[in-house]
Amino acid sequence: MAVLAWLLIPLLAAIGAGLWGTWVGRNRRTVGDGTELAGYRRFREAMEKPHLAKQPVEEQPVEQQHVEKSPTDA
Fold first, then answer.
1. What is d(CA 10, CA 16) in angstroms, rounded to the nearest whole number?
2. Phi, psi of 25 (to 5 degrees)
3. 17 closest CA partner among 9, 7, 29
């Protein structure tokens, strides 16, 4: 009898999982891919835009007094 009790646990879990899967997927047919496709379209449009060339930044001279050398630097 104890064996039957242990076999009922996975059986009830499988039935519960099937019911839960059915309940979760009940609105699956009415939901479209509109928002995902719109987001992908906006992504593609953003990637197709030409990139602006960055202006070169003028390098400012580094003063020697601000540069710290470690003891291992020769």
1. 10
2. -85, 10
3. 9
From first to last of the 74 residues of the chain, give the pLDDT tens digit: 888 889 999 999 999 999 999 998 887 666 677 888 899 999 999 999 887 666 666 665 555 555 566 666 65
Q: How far apart (Å, rounded) are the C-alpha atoms in residues 38 and 45?
A: 11
CA–CA distance, 56 with 11 (Å, rounded to integer): 69
Closest Cα partner for 45 from 37, 54, 53?
37
Distance of alpha carbon 63 from alpha carbon 60, whole angstroms: 9
CA distance 33 to 10: 36
